[in-house]
Design a protein that fits this description.
The complex is a heterodimer of chains A (739) and B (266).
Chain A (H helix, E strand, L loop, with lengths): L4 H6 L5 H10 L17 E7 L8 E7 L2 E7 L12 H4 L1 H5 L9 E3 L12 E3 L2 H19 L4 E5 L4 H7 L4 E2 L7 H11 L5 E2 L6 E5 L9 H12 L4 E5 L5 H4 L3 E3 L6 H14 L5 H7 E2 L1 H7 L5 H8 L3 H11 L5 E2 L14 H14 L9 E2 L47 H7 L7 E5 L9 H10 L2 E6 L4 H4 L3 E4 L8 E4 L8 E5 L12 H11 L12 H6 L7 H6 L3 E3 L19 E2 L3 H5 L21 E7 L13 H6 L4 E5 H6 L7 E6 L2 E10 L6 E5 L28 H6 L13 E6 L1
Parallel strand pairs in A: 6-7, 6-15, 9-10, 9-13, 10-11, 12-21, 15-16, 16-17, 22-26, 23-25
Antiparallel strand pairs in A: 1-2, 2-3, 4-5, 4-17, 8-14, 18-19, 19-20, 22-27, 23-26, 24-25, 24-27
Chain B lengths: L3 E6 L8 H10 L25 E9 L3 E9 L8 H5 L5 E3 L5 E3 L9 H5 L6 E3 L4 E3 L5 H4 L6 H5 L5 E5 H17 L6 E3 L9 E5 L17 H9 L3 H34 L1
Parallel strand pairs in B: 1-10
Antiparallel strand pairs in B: 1-8, 2-3, 4-5, 6-7, 9-10
Classes of the chains: A alpha/beta (739), B alpha+beta (266).
Chain lengths: 739, 266
């Protein structure tokens, strides 16, 4: 060995001491033979769970002299398997971000213009809670509890219940509502696990989790392709990362995937290529489906989608060839963003069902989600007086079965606030949402303008914070404990447990505590479930373990990893079997089978008009990671993909500033010319476009795709016969012009 | 320790950039914030604070259609590294198991290595007036861990281990790729420059990934390394002695000249 361990650390391979040492030695020509003696650093390791995305990868945090220095994935975690993504790896950037919110802030300047100086005044938590509670109280007294809404990640349900408002506005209609509802109708669960590793045929419709770096899904697809030699076919208007790794890329016309899937169902059924045995045992509604898809011929689908009929037939043949085959569905991609998304998700499920690929190795597995005990409030809150929701959720009983539950219609809110329908809204609590997540941003801003008070619970002083009257600083996930069952892509039962890596750096609080303090001030804390450290043990009670025990066991609790197929005749569907024909949908006035309506389609007419698709880069998570230094350095700005040949015709060069305009708004950004996108389609990277100068790195970081997207009021969803209230963000034609 | 190598399989890489960030995190390197290039790849090259990058290469081929390739780029840990040959202070060394490491304490920031490296890897770090580059995480490896990039690679495109075993694995992969749609698949780093401690499994020829097809060390380097450098320690005393001699001799000559002049006048 050339060097001793000590010398290695001296080399600057990873210790602060080495860097400091080099500084002290400066430019000295001659080496100092005696390195200065440093006290050995005090090193601890702690169990963590990443909260940057919903996968919640488990990791070990290395703490050196009280400072968190490195996150390392845990090999036993089914999601990370020891490997964190770029976002997970840069967690310390968020924790030690100098731009973080450090205390409650009160806006003293008038107006709600994103990025404008709010003339913030630092106030104490006592004062902040007092002010927030008194504004809520004022609204409740004058306009009723329904005038208070909570916009955010389903975190406000208990608080709203306690004060008596039905307005749990959650973002899911712009995210995963379609997949949840379609899977619930068909399989009785909210999601399914694509078993890529054992699959032989992977068929993707816009699915690009390789390009978005969801570790367990990206790893799965690569392993399936390489270890199992699975064929990968990708339908996507853009040559995505997943398409670049696929055997076949089919640049389909945006919004027409459903036609192709229905035609494939037609081929599989009419040629008798379905798994008759499986269908007879486990599928409900096959006869009706066979009748319905008769009209969807490959020739018909070909005219709509630009995919040759022969290709549709061949892929249908390959998919139904008897090998394990799967169609992954994650969130927005092709499913959520256009009319007919719900039908597309159901048609994909139907295709896997009739080929016998449900709950079978290499197909779609039912998720194995470990249950937890959730604490209940001391006293049951009184029944809601008003059950009509501002977003119109009550009109979509499939999506919102009970007030406060389900997914809702996020995008419908601004219109309803502006119209004052069905009643006025006065106070909004906004949690974990940014202006980048609000389609037709200008309309949302007008709606916010109309509100009396906006309370924002946030980590960063982003543009949402600058338009809010009161900003309450939330702690970062590395400062708080967590118990996280695997929910998305849960292959086997597993719970990850995390402890705070470091003490809270600033005067911040967890959202649960903020809600509780507000409820207490309003005198309704008896209706709130307990929160904080004391519920950690309770959550794990059914496993006979305490939170501390779980940490001692390595922070990961595993169920059996052996695959035992579940019974497909006792699903939580209407018939207990796989439900393709749904009487419930019929009863609600919708088509009980997956179907297609050509009025859903839109088409660019002029040369400068385009379809819109969106994507996300792998090192950013929507809008929340843009101020993290290492990630910002890799991608500091968003851009717009345009087909190179088409751009030349329009006189647009690589890097040119272009203006995107639609019926709903305008936005400018830099063009990136690529070969791998349809000439009639542009792709905008999502999550960029922050206008707050108080998060310095993320300031002015490119185009915000939401500004050109529609925010349809609930009536549009009804006209389009959409049972789940999907946002349909990409149901828009965009004009592109060089500026 | 056996000969250890970091293998990188292009066909598995999804360009998620986890390796790039894990490298920053382990080596505690600051973010190198550069102006936006309108591209997926903001850093065109590695720099003094960025030891590894992922390159993006888009091709349009009339037959094969569009391809989009990614390539992780960092120090190749040559078995006979040019940087080590040219360094006048002996700041570079090879570990017994294969890493080429650079000792910043010995570095004088002369940057000869940055010109000598056929891969353009060592980069000047201005804030310290020194050169810096990938260490193959020698400090982790010596502790029985994997390099930070390999440990964090979600799809297993990076694998760290015994060079011989990894070469066998690479042969298998390349054969598989050749039979499955990539007729030009090849291994890079097996023979190049006498073998690198970094093996690439490529889906196409190296030039398609911007790698030098036949990397060479500039011709004068072996001369420097083999003839001049061993006597480097003698150079300063020699030079001092030379200047002393020249000082004395010029003085003597001058005096003589003066005398002559004097004599001439008289």
């Amino acid at each position: 060995m050339g060097l001793t361990r000590r010398e290695f650390f001296k080399l600057g391979g990873g210790s602060i001491a080495a860097i400091a040492g080099a500084g002290i030695l400066g430019n000295s020509l001659f080496n100092n033979p005696e390195a200065p003696a440093y006290a050995a650093p005090r090193i601890e390791y702690k169990h963590g769970v990443c909260e940057i995305c919903e996968m919640n990868c488990a990791f070990l945090g290395k703490i050196e002299n009280g400072r968190l220095v490195k996150l390392e994935g845990k090999p036993k975690d089914q999601h990370s398997r020891g490997a964190l993504c770029a976002k997970g790896n840069s967690g310390i950037n968020m924790l030690y971000d100098p731009d973080r919110l450090k205390a409650p802030l009160l806006k003293t300047a008038p107006g709600r213009i994103p990025g404008q100086d709010p003339k913030w005044k630092k106030i104490s938590w006592d004062e902040a809670i007092n002010r927030a509670a008194s504004e809520i109280q004022k609204a409740i007294e004058k306009y009723g509890p329904q005038s208070v809404i909570w916009i955010g990640h389903n975190k406000g349900t208990d608080f709203l219940r306690a004060i008596g408002s039905p307005n749990n506005i959650n973002h899911q209609s712009t995210c995963n509502a379609v997949r949840i509802m379609a899977t619930r109708i068909t399989l009785g669960v909210a999601n399914y696990v694509p078993d890529f590793e054992n699959s032989k045929y992977i068929l993707c419709f816009g699915w690009d989790q390789l390009g978005k770096a969801k570790n367990s899904l990206a790893r799965g697809l690569i392993e399936g392709k390489i270890k199992n030699n699975a064929k990968v076919v990708v339908f996507d208007p853009r040559f995505s990362t997943t398409a670049s790794k696929a055997h076949e890329w089919i640049p389909i016309r945006p919004g027409t995937d459903l036609a192709v899937v229905l035609a494939m169902l037609n081929v599989i059924i009419s040629e008798g290529r379905y798994n008759a045995d499986f269908v007879a045992k486990y599928v409900e509604g096959f006869e009706e489906l066979a009748e319905e898809v008769k009209k969807y011929t490959p020739e018909w689908a070909s005219k709509i989608s630009d995919v040759p009929a022969g290709t549709i037939r061949r892929i249908a043949h390959e998919f139904s060839g008897g090998c394990p085959a799967v169609i992954p569905i994650h969130k927005r991609e092709a499913i959520q963003v256009r009319p007919g998304g719900f039908e597309l998700a159901r048609a994909c499920l139907a295709m896997m069902a009739i080929t016998g690929n449900i709950e079978r190795r290499g197909g779609a597995l039912l998720p194995r989600i470990a249950p937890l005990n959730y604490p209940k409030p001391k006293e049951k809150p009184p029944e809601l007086q008003v059950t009509e929701r501002i977003d119109g959720g009550h009109l979509f009983p499939l999506a919102v079965p009970k007030p406060l539950s389900g997914t809702g219609l996020y995008q419908s809110v601004p219109d309803m606030i502006l119209r004052g329908e069905p009643y006025p809204v006065k106070v909004a609590v906004v949690y974990g949402q940014s202006l980048q997540s609000m389609p037709e941003t200008e309309k949302w801003l007008k709606a916010f303008e109309k509100l009396d008070y906006v309370i924002n619970i946030n980590i960063y002083p982003d543009d949402m914070a600058t338009i809010s009257d009161l900003v309450l600083p939330e702690s970062v996930y590395l400062e708080t404990p967590h118990i996280s069952p695997r929910i998305t892509n849960a292959r086997y039962y597993q719970i990850a447990v995390a402890e705070p890596m470091v003490k809270k750096l600033y005067d911040t609080k967890e959202v649960d505590e903020i809600k509780y303090l507000l409820a207490k001030k309003l005198g309704v804390d008896k209706y709130m479930p307990p929160h904080g450290e004391k519920v950690l043990d309770y959550k794990l009670k059914r496993y006979g373990l305490t939170y501390k025990d779980a940490l001692k066991k390595g922070g990961i609790l595993n169920g059996s990893q052996k695959f035992t197929p579940k019974d497909l005749t006792s699903l939580r569907t209407e018939s207990g079997k796989i439900q393709i024909y749904s009487p419930k949908l019929k009863e609600l006035g919708y088509n009980p089978l997956p179907w297609f309506d050509e009025t859903w389609l839109i088409e660019p007419k002029a040369d400068d008009e385009f379809y819109l698709v969106t994507s996300r880069p792998p090192m950013h998570r929507h809008s929340k990671t843009h101020n993290m230094r290492w990630l910002h350095a890799i991608m500091p700005e968003g851009f717009i993909y345009i087909n190179a040949a088409k751009a030349e015709k329009l006189g647009i060069k690589d890097g040119d500033m272009v203006e995107l305009s639609s019926k709903y708004g305008k936005e400018t950004g830099k063009a990136k010319l690529i070969q791998g996108i349809r000439p009639d389609t542009i792709c905008v990277l999502h999550g960029f476009g922050n206008k707050s100068p108080y998060i310095k790195l993320a300031y002015n970081n490119g185009p915000n795709d939401s500004r050109i997207m529609p925010a349809y009021p609930k009536e549009v969803n009804m006209t389009l016969k959409d049972p789940v209230g999907a946002s349909m963000d990409c149901h828009v034609i965009v004009k592109v012009r060089k500026v | 320790m056996a000969n250890l190598t970091n293998l990188y399989d292009v066909s598995k890489c999804t360009a998620c950039r986890a390796c790039q960030v894990a490298c920053k995190n382990w080596n505690q390197l600051p973010a190198a914030i550069e102006p936006f290039k309108g591209n997926y790849q903001t850093h065109e090259d590695t720099n003094g604070d960025t030891y590894t990058i992922v390159r993006f290469i888009e091709h349009e081929d009339p037959v094969g259609g569009v391809t989009w390739n990614f390539l992780k780029y960092q120090c190749m840990h040559c078995s006979d590294p040019a940087c080590m040959k040219v360094c006048p202070r002996g700041a570079y060394s090879k570990t017994e198991w294969g890493a080429t490491i650079h000792d910043p304490d010995k570095c004088i920031g002369c940057q000869y290595c940055t010109y000598a490296c056929p891969f353009g890897i060592p980069k000047y770090r201005e804030r310290e007036d020194k050169v810096a580059k990938c260490t193959l995480c020698a400090d982790r490896v010596e502790e029985g861990m994997q390099p930070a990039c390999a440990a964090t690679c979600p799809t297993g495109a990076l694998k760290f281990g015994d060079r011989y075993e990894l070469l066998q694995y690479a042969e298998e992969r390349v054969n598989f790729l050749r039979a499955n749609g990539y007729p030009n698949a090849t291994i890079y780093g097996k023979l190049e420059l006498g073998g690198l401690n970094k093996i690439y499994i490529l889906t196409d020829t190296p030039d398609k990934f911007g790698l030098p097809v036949d990397p060479k060390i500039p011709g004068q380097i072996p001369f420097w390394q083999d003839i001049v450098q061993p006597y480097f320690g003698w150079l300063i005393p020699l030079a001092l002695a030379g200047s002393a001699v020249s000082f004395v001799t010029t003085r003597l000559l001058a005096n003589k000249h003066k005398e002559n002049k004097k004599g001439g006048h008289e």
